[in-house]
Amino acid sequence: MRTVSAKLKHIGTSLSSSSRPYSLTPLASSHGKPRNPPSPTLLNEFVNFCYQRDLPKAMNAMAAMERHGIYADSITYSELIKCCLARNAVEQGKLVHKHVFSNGYQPKTFLINILISMYVKFKLLDEAQALFDQMRERNVVSWTTMISAYANAKLSDKALEFFVLMLREGVLPNMFTFSSVLRACNGLFNVRQLHCGMVKLGLESDVFVRSALIDVYSKLDELKDAICVFNEMETKDLVVWNSIIGGLAQNSDGDEALDQFKRMKRAGFTADQATLTSVLRACTGLALLEVGRQVHVHVLKFDVDLILNNALLDMYCKSGSLEDAKSVFERMVHRDVISWSTMIAGLAQNGFSQEALKLFDLMKASGIKPNYITILGVLFACSHAGLVDDGLYYFRSMKRLYGIDPGREHYGCIIDLLGRAGKVDEAVSLVQEMECEPDAVTWRTLLGACKVHRNVDLAIYAAKQVLKLDPEDAGTYVLLSNIYANSQRWEDVSEIRRQMREKGITKEPGCSWIEVNKQIHAFIVGDTAHPEINEINRWLNQLIHKLMGIGYVPDTNFVLQDLEGEQRDDSLWYHSEKLAIVFGLMSLSSGSVIRIRKNLRICGDCHTFAKLVAKTECRVIVIRDPIRYHHFQNGVCSCGDYW
DNA sequence: TTAGGGTTAG
């Protein structure tokens, strides 16, 4: 930081070195009346107050100077503006603006840019825009300040419009402009055009521009381009690493995100809050509890970072480790609506509905206003606990109490709630009353209700609606085919299979993952690849026969039940989650929880199997499928046998 | 005087 004496020396030099003592004192050619040269004493006092960030004294000094007809120069005004910004003093900032333009003076572009930037930082875009409009000359900084302001305010069209206007005025963009305008891009076409523009201007190698490019390609789901931009970089900094790790984690490519994280560490970088947040997100997606715990150790360095703690909380919730999640939540120094919503949804999804609803009350009591997602967690909790009246109350009153319009997801929760309670007709009525158009997820939810309550006709109707909106949904094709087969509608069965062949739709094979000693073991249905598969199968056969001895009957009635479509009796025995459960029994110590993640919904038979294994082997088994969490303990499941 | 990265549902 510059010392006061250095500053004074600087001022002294300015005063003595030129016939125009203050370099930015208006010249005769400036608009407005020429200003008197400043008095060194008054000016020195004023400058000192500015550098000391003593805003009240600086403002008084400025007024005193102006009473003598003395005006500061642009550099000093810019220091005063920094003073206002440091103190978040909006009104004083506006006053400085008036002083800068007082006496008909027309300040230099440099100073007007600083004033615009001040208004942007105060989030007063209208004031910034008005000042920008008044400018006689706008340079690249003026334009970039406005573009960046609109990009930050999520007014993408406005930011892009300014970029085009800037080009039309013949102002050449620089790397600052590109990294700002990229954030406003929401279409691939724009990004490619901009990318070409940067290459032409030789700005592509700038590290800020590159990280913005990686980020925007990732957000547009163009990971190949993001990785390409990243790999082409010879010099990478931490933000660039964070951009690619974050992009991968947000695009459900957790494995690759964790690989890049390892490469980043090998390259000598130390993770910061943003890195750890993305790494936790990758762990969350993969349900890697043990790896997540390792990351937790590093999170302790940043224990007041809200975003990072929210990510940690979510990791524990989604890995099914509610005790850890509660502990993180209790210890958080600050909690925002995301912290509360994450915890409420985490409790609800893991089967702790009453706790979730109690937490919602606590949240409101603590003065935090619920948002769209909070209410989803609350409705989910009601649905899980079969609290039809409460769920309908929250749903019907959300607009009135919290100002939140019910969206498709809220309708989905209530359809699920009514379906779970056997009120399928009411669920249909709700679909009909929806203000927004039902989508494939809505119909799939209704299909779930039909599945449980064996409502074949409605199931066929709902399945057809799903396929209209999502013609690639293999699970629904298989389900529909099974429904027809059960009704001996063989022509319809053939038609469904023909459609699947024609469209090249194949069912994704069922896959389950389990983490043992920080290694991930993956099992595919009917797996033969795992090195211990023979031992696993031997255990599995013994276990199935043991369970059959206490009444387990493999459930081969898959109609309206098997969302995987793994309907053959022999494959039933080798469903991926059964293999993973047995591997967990073989590999994990007797007290530890068996945690499994699945890519497809669990079938009815595996659900029964898991409940019985949990009972006979005295284990807690947690299976996370794409939609729900199942905690199996003492022969029961937290989902209440509805999923 | 202008620029880049991280959190909740689905």
UniProtKB/TrEMBL annotation:
Q: Which segments carry the PPR repeats?
A: 73-107, 108-138, 139-173, 237-271, 305-335, 336-370, 473-507
Cite the InterPro entries for this sequence. Answer: DYW_dom, E_motif, PPR_At4g14850-like_plant, PPR_rpt, TPR-like_helical_dom_sf
Q: Where are the stretches annotated Disordered? A: 1-38
- DYW domain: from which residue to which, for each copy? 551-643
Q: Does the keyword Transit peptide apply?
A: yes
Q: Which is an annotated Pfam family here?
A: PPR_1
- The Low complexity compositionally biased stretches are 13-27
What PANTHER family does the annotation carry? Answer: PENTATRICOPEPTIDE REPEAT-CONTAINING PROTEIN, REPEAT-CONTAINING PROTEIN, PUTATIVE-RELATED
| Record-stated family | Belongs to the PPR family. PCMP-H subfamily.
Q: Which NCBIfam families match?
A: PPR (TIGR00756)
Record's protein name: DYW domain-containing protein
